[in-house]
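Incident log, support desk, overnight shift.

02:14 A customer reports that sequence design results differ from what the structure should imply. Their input is reproduced verbatim below. On-call engineer (initials T.W.) acknowledged and began investigating.
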């Protein structure tokens, strides 16, 4: 469900379980909350496009929907992009910068995966050209839901840097061997970090190597398990 307040405060309920008559109540007296639209199951992120003024939301499957909220009549959504467009099959991050749409997530296989940030550059005809911003080398997966992957994605207030959370491949630091594929393995160099990249980065490849990552200057914070969403205040 997407909610709107009198100051356009937005809450996003992303559970695939039915809300079952639950309501959102404001804790501030002069804020009102209205329901806009019930999103599809598996939703992961919500963002406002500054160009069209419309809301977009993503599903973990890679689908991205545009929400139409007319002055009169019911709201609706339209599928605008899929994993075929941006190349991310598990999508967890979404934000806009000017007319560009940035998304992040992972492409998993049975024993390895890569993290990706991709930018959709708006064209005059309304379509987007998708370019890879950051791609990681393949790194070992945990399987069985242990991999948190590339999730939180945001921009700093100056519009100079992109921040992305690369979460843990474990739940609580335990060994995750993926059925014996990675004996004794816990975390790897590409996991448990928040990375920072210049906003104009294109085509960067991150190695799964501790020395390379620490010398790169791209590590902003280490030791994070799953900063699923991030923001500035």
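02:41 Re-run completed on a clean worker. Output:
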């Amino acid at each position: 469900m997407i909610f709107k307040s009198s100051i356009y405060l937005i809450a996003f309920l992303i559970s695939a379980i039915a809300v079952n008559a639950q309501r959102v109540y404001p804790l501030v007296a002069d804020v009102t909350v209205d329901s806009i639209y019930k999103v599809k199951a598996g939703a992961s992120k919500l963002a406002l496009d500054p160009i069209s003024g419309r809301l977009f939301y993503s599903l973990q499957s890679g689908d991205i929907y545009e929400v139409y909220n007319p002055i009169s009549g019911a709201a609706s959504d339209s599928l605008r992009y899929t994993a075929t467009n941006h190349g991310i099959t598990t999508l967890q991050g979404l934000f806009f910068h000017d007319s560009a749409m940035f998304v992040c997530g992972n492409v998993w296989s049975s024993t390895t995966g890569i993290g990706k940030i991709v930018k959709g550059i708006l064209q005059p005809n309304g379509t987007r050209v998708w370019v890879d911003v950051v791609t990681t080398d393949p790194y070992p997966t945990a399987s069985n839901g242990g991999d948190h992957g590339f999730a939180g994605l945001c921009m700093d207030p100056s519009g100079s840097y992109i921040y992305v959370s690369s979460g843990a491949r474990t739940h609580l630091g335990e060994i995750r061997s993926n059925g014996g594929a990675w004996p004794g393995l816990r975390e790897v160099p590409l996991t448990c970090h928040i990375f920072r990249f210049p906003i104009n980065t294109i085509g960067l490849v991150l190695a799964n190597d501790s020395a390379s990552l620490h010398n790169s200057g791209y590590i902003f914070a280490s030791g994070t398990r799953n900063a699923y969403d991030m923001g500035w205040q």
